[in-house]
Amino acid sequence: MNSSGAAARDPGPRPTGQREAALMSIGEVLAHLRTEFPDTTISKLRFLEAEGLVDPERTASGYRKYSWNDVARLRFVLTAQRDQYLPLRVIREQLDRMDEAPPAPARPALVAVGSEKASDPSDTRVPREDVIERTGVAPALLDELEQIGLVTAKPPGWYDGDAVLIVEAVVGLTRYGLEARHLRAFRAAADREVGLFTQLLAPLVRQSDPAARARAGETARELQALSQKLHAALVRAGLRGELGR
Fold it and tell me: What are the GO MF terms of this UniProt record (predicted)?
């Protein structure tokens, strides 16, 4: 797959002084990609390989070895998923077209093409079948997530960007043995935070001044970021204590 075509000809940015033929382990690729895609995991890279989107070389002992062309393909896929919520089927078709295209001099770095990135996750519309293909969620699990209120399908059956991110996170958690019923606590905790933040934002929301409304939106984003930071620190500290570190 990665021996010809635009993706192979356009490896994207690489560290200064890096040899053209240098190959990387999956851990090195992960470290490289996480600067731009911090949620990427080794399991994610293996999944994309299983889906035929990248084809790293293998050593005699079976270890994966990635070229910079492979990294460029992975960056393309991750960008298309993150910014445009494209399903893997569409991304694969784009890569196939690039592979078949004739060589062109001085091609720019790979950039996902398609619909423009939505200005807000709520503006994104992703059909159910694309959510299933992108996240790998079982249809029965997706139905269960709707039943317990973690995600909501909008008529006539599409999901917004936040719902896609929620499903991706849930699929990752279920790989470690969590079940949908365990996630009710996440929904309840989020609802409590929303209630608290709504009270804090109420004075701004009640104002008819457009500037006040804009401040309310910015304040909401700041509260969300601080909440995520606090939650991550609390969980990290708690696990460190449990692990005796």
Answer: DNA binding; DNA-binding transcription factor activity
Decide: 10 and 95 in contact? Cβ < 8 Å: no
**What is residue 117's DSSP assignment?**
P
- Residue 54's SS3 state is coil
Give the integer Cα–Cα distance in Å for 142 and 152.
Answer: 10
Rg over CA atoms, the chain: 21
Strand 57-58 relative to strand 158-159, pairing: unpaired
HEC profile of 157-192: CEECHHHHHHHHHHHHHHCCCCCHHHHHHHHHHHHH
* Residue 12 buriedness (CB in 10 A; 0-12 / 13-18 / 19+): middle
Buried b (16+ CB within 10 A) or exposed e, 44-71: bbeebbeeebbebeeeeeeebbbbbbbb
Encode pLDDT of 79-95 as tens digits. 888 877 777 888 888 88
pLDDT tens digits, one per residue of 11-62:
344 444 444 457 899 999 998 898 888 888 888 899 899 889 999 999 998 8
Residue 156: is the preceding peptide bond cis (ω within 30°)? yes
